[in-house]
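Hello support,

Our group uses your service weekly, and this is the first time we've seen a run hang past the timeout. The protein is Pyrrolidone-carboxylate peptidase. I'm not sure whether the cause is the sequence or the server load. Input pasted verbatim:
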Amino acid sequence: MARVLLTGFEPFDGESVNPSWLAVRAAAAEPPAGLEIATAELPCVYGAARVALRAAIEENRPEIVVSVGQAGGRPDITVERVAVNLDDARIPDVSGARPIDEPIVPGGPAAYFSTLPVKACVAAVRAAGLPASVSNTAGTFVCNHVFYALAHLIATELPGVRGGFVHVPYAPEQVLDRARPSLPVASVARALREIAATAAHIRTDLRVAEGATH
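Update from on-call engineer: The timeout came from a worker crash unrelated to the input. Re-ran successfully.
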């Protein structure tokens, strides 16, 4: 059994739910064959999220880590390619912290690439009938903070672990009073199962065009 850790976030920015955590729990409730899925809900707080991520990894000893976060406004499942060593908060985190132009790891590399097969994961989600794309920016909020922290852990302490980050749209109940894209939590959970299974079975990524012009 391949051991996979899925992490999601608590609600933030005035929302009552976070679809990342709802979908992570739903995905783990029906894991793909051959996968053992553990879950952890991370605080949407700079610093504390890194601590909770490390604790979840130490507790569950996964081979693969897929962290998941909400990207309100995006219309599809976006598998992130790169994490940058920068905290720059447009809005405060749940604790009220709002770092500006601060490194996540002082002296660390400017960026890390995901160690998941991002293009193969996108292809698998599309094959399941769901919208997906490769993203080249995870932002500079707590999602990127966790993605970079995960990549730094893998690079410096956990060479046997592979990991990356996935952004998901709003859940439908979050956009009842506004015209914003959304996806049902059940669909997002299905996408996460596809991503977890693909990451467990594929190490060499597809060589197909998934870049962006802007």
